[in-house]
Write a structure and sequence with these properties.
three-stranded antiparallel β-sheet; nine-stranded mixed β-sheet; about 375 residues; DNA polymerase, domain 1; Arc Repressor Mutant, subunit A; 12 strands; alpha/beta
């Protein structure tokens, strides 16, 4: 788009008191943002409130700065991926978002913009998962990506980051057997401007997503990670997926907000059960009681979404997690977090021997040490 069109879109999106629904109504009446700003206040008042009409006719203070910032960002095209701005009604705009009551007027995108979404599933969960939960998210992301599904998540710490990481690995494996990549392996919907990465720990992950998938934001460049943006962006995560899989979530969490939004959009909601002793599992159990699909394998997800392949698929499990399968201590641990005292009572080992065996299993990556002097078996060893 040219500078005048870009300025009009930005001005419409930045007008105080004019949200996505009102802006969409204006576009339906006047066809384009430029045409909206050609109307008189009297004409605008026939469609919107007087206060909104006045706001539209008053250019936002930051408009000029935002225009320059966006022009420079669009002109700064990285070597291995692209920057783009997709507006409502453009051919690249994801049709899945049009089912929202308030689809974004514009979405900023960075990544493989020449590709499309295809079938996709959202994977969400705790920012502070158990080691088992983080590994489960990564394995589901890898397995689902390997059979052709895009994985949608929010780039947050914990389950989100694990799901993206697994999806990238699964996508590489899928591309090795396909003629060419045509769909995004994973899509990160973020709550900041795309000229910054939040959290900072995910700088490298965001870069890898851009190389194999897509980063999406509805927020203008320069937008900071404000708390209210993240529940708002969850509606985009819910809309882009055929269903939402919740790996771990407390009873009060953003993941349950995403699941609720998915239900309101007619999408499937799926949840992985966990230990009754882990707070991160309580939200998943609540969802299952309310009718969410109980998921144990990637095959369960495909069947619920009616995408099951002819042959059942297994989770992509790193062989490193199976090296201690025969270790008797793992059988005593189970899969729930357990204290040293409780474990000692089960296995009847002396303290020194028990601690030595736990250390060995930690070094092998099949046991994780949790806060509160707890231990948990990791993976499916």
């Amino acid at each position: 788009m040219d500078k005048d069109e870009l300025r009009a879109w930005l001005r419409l999106s930045m007008a105080e008191g004019v949200g996505n629904q009102t802006a969409r109504q204006l576009l339906a009446c006047f066809a384009s943002p430029q045409a909206v700003f050609e109307q008189t206040e009297t004409t605008l008042r026939q469609v919107i409130t007087p206060k909104q009409a006045q706001a539209l006719l008053t250019p936002p203070n930051e408009l000029a700065v935002q225009c320059v910032r966006t022009e420079q960002w669009l002109a700064r095209q990285p070597e291995a991926y692209s920057h783009a701005l997709w507006t409502l009604g453009s051919p690249h705009y994801p049709t899945e978002l049009l089912q929202l009551a308030d689809p974004p007027l514009m979405i900023y995108v960075a990544g493989q913009t020449q590709h499309t979404l295809g079938h996709a599933v959202a994977i969400v969960g705790s920012r502070n998962p158990t080691p088992q939960g983080a590994q489960t998210a990564e394995q589901f992301g890898e397995s689902l990506s390997a059979v052709g599904l895009g994985v949608i998540s929010g780039l947050a710490l914990g389950v989100d980051g694990a799901a993206h990481t697994g999806a990238l690995r699964g996508g590489i494996a899928r591309d090795a057997t396909a003629s060419a990549q045509t769909h995004w392996h994973t899509v990160a919907v973020v709550g900041t401007g795309l000229d910054r990465v939040y959290p900072r720990q995910h700088q490298a992950l965001a870069h890898h997503i851009a190389l194999q998938g897509l980063l999406i934001s509805e927020y203008p460049l320069g937008t900071s990670p404000l708390a209210h943006h993240f529940p708002q962006r969850n509606r985009l995560i819910a809309a882009l997926g055929l269903g939402t899989l919740v790996v771990e979530a407390a009873l009060k969490s953003g993941s349950l907000i995403t699941a609720k939004m998915a239900l309101e959009l007619g999408r499937e909601v799926l949840a992985i059960p966990g230990s009754i002793h882990a707070p991160q599992s309580h939200g998943c159990h609540a969802l299952i009681r309310q009718g969410a699909k109980l998921v144990e394998t990637a095959q369960d997800v495909l069947e619920e979404l009616q995408l099951a392949p002819p042959q059942p698929i297994d989770l992509c499990i790193d062989t490193a997690t199976t090296k201690s399968t025969e270790h008797s201590l793992l059988a005593h641990m189970g899969y729930s977090p357990v204290s040293l005292d409780a474990l000692q009572a089960r296995c009847e080992l002396d303290t020194a021997t028990l601690q030595a065996q736990l250390l060995t299993l930690e070094l092998e990556g099949v046991v994780a040490r949790l806060p509160g002097s707890l231990f948990q078996r990791v993976g499916f060893a």
